Amino acid sequence: MVPMLLMIEDDRELAAMVAEYLGRYGFEVRVASTAREGLAQFRRESFAAVLLDIMLPDGDGLDVCRTLRAESDVPVLMLTARGEPADRIVGLELGADDYLPKPFEPRELLARLKAVLRRGRGSSAPRDLLVFGRLELDRDARSVSLDAEPVPLTGYQFDLLWVLASGAGRVMTRDMLMDRLKGHEIEAFDRSLDVHVSRIRALIEDDPKHPKRILTVRGVGYVFAKAQD
Amino acid sequence: MKRLYLRIWLAFLGILIAFAVLLAVSWWLLPNDYDAPRFNRVLSLLVAEALGPGTETPAEVQSRLARVTARMRGQVTVRAADGTLLAHVGPPLPWPRTGIERSGVIRMGGRGHVFAMRLDDGRVVLVHAGHRPRRQGLLLAIGLLLLTTAIGSYFAARQMTRRLERLRAGVNALGQGDLAARVAVEGGDEIARVAESFNDAAARIERLVSAHRNLLANVSHELRSPLSRIRMALELLESSVRPELRARLARDVTELDALIGELLLSSRLQAMPDTQRAEVDMLAVCAEEATEFDATVSGTPVVLQGDERLLRRLVRNLLQNAQRYGEGSEIEADVASDGRTATLRVSDRGPGVPVGDEERIFEPFYRPRGAPETGQGFGLGLALVRQIAREHGGDVVYRRRDGGGSVFEVTLRLRHAQAGQSG
What we know:
The structure holds two protein chains of two kinds.
Chain A lengths: L3 E5 L3 H13 L3 E5 L2 H10 L4 E5 L1 E2 L2 E2 H11 L4 E5 L4 H9 L4 E4 L4 H14 L9 E4 L2 E4 L4 E4 L2 E3 L3 H12 L4 E3 H7 L9 H15 L9 E4 L3 E4 L5
Parallel strand pairs in A: 1-2, 1-3, 3-6, 6-7
Antiparallel strand pairs in A: 4-5, 8-9, 9-10, 10-11, 12-14, 13-14
Helix pairs in contact in A: 6-8
Chain B lengths: L3 H26 L7 H15 L6 H11 L6 E5 L5 E5 L14 E4 L5 E6 L5 E5 L6 H41 L14 H47 L6 H29 L6 E4 H9 L5 E4 L3 E4 L1 H18 L6 E6 L3 E8 L32 H11 L3 E6 L5 E8 L10
């Protein structure tokens, strides 16, 4: 079945081009150019996801997002040309699944759309899940996936990656890492940390020689990048 | 400096104490019988009548005195004009040292009040009623009055200045970016007028900032909507059509978008710095941003209170600058801290900034002297670095590097109180 999307966007030309572009990747896009029309259409038909512009002629996209969230679990991807960083926070707080500033890379739109569709909003039970762009870490299942493909990691490697990722944006010294991975006695050699990091990199980095996720700070330790993809 | 309410209260109290002291002193000093001479005159005639015309023997005077004083307690003494004791009830009262030339109340040392009355025939009647003088009661009353007024005036002064303090809190809140901050207008005095003026000014500022924000949002929207269409149209173009030109166009769109972003950010930072403060690890931010520029990162982890989005932008702009003008030399970023400030140094081995332009490079759209018009300008990058550094209680300076090249040195306060915040 062709996934059907609803795009609530007052820029008809842009909407038409997005519809054409996404059409090439097997999506069918319905366009509504006002908040009212969009909500009416949303209630009439069933959609796999909603692309929502934040500035609409008859209201605020944020209000539409609130209404959509109150009525349904449909994934919502917000688009905005307003350039207010606060909008992003508000949008995500209101339950939007992702947020993309205009002008966006069409390919990025596609990737993010696929990601929100994959994640869905089905399970409401809180899971110990860390998501960094295309990379997902699930603590309960002790599994890691990149682009929805499972990444085969050993138990120690998963724990190491989890410790790094849960401290994303902070430099972790070698001592801190060793301390948090105390349970794993066999692997407590200092050098083995680097070996494991390079093995993890080989699995989750697009280019392991130029890592973008696990970064080395010479003489200090590692940092798991907060802003990825 | 003393608090205003305390100063008002102390001034009030000072005046009150001076008033009380003056009152007491004048009460002690002024004669209190100045309004009673007529009454005393009548009284002296009656007393003379009761004691007899003055021709009696001392025994007769004594018996008349005893009869008159039978129903009173206290001492009464009658003396002749020369002080000779004529009669007395109770121990005889001594001849008053002063004040005998007129009748009325005479104070006699150590014995309380003694009434001395000179009769027309020169005799003097001295009466000591035996009761305590009421002056201590009056002093007590003055003391109580003083205490009550002191307490009352304390609260009055506190009440007056409390409104000033509320006003100050409102001004502070506005200074810290709460544009909806208003103060209650209480009463109709000067403080109330100031509160009204503050509220008016705050409302005007809020309207202005809101208009500015709307303008920025609209400018952003108007510029970015066509850019979105261009970017989308490029993607829809047949892939066979001049791929290098399409890539070039896509880059231009990205650059234009970045420039719009920087213009908006700069404008927003100038007009309404509403930075979000959180803990940011500067070394980690550098390590992350460095991956895009192939820069070497060293230093120690330094966590500061700041706006991560802005600090990332600061690091990125410096690295971008080093990449653009470092002529392919190695870019190094170093993070250090002295416990109060974080220092970030981004260095390259490029040709460096022309002598004399070390400060000018931080001006928006700086262009080196003699640079061709078509050449790439510096844009807003370094100007933003300076704005962001200053927003975080620090600054950025340019230094020449030993052995050639540039060092951009940024200092950032680890914990920075926002402008307008007190204490």
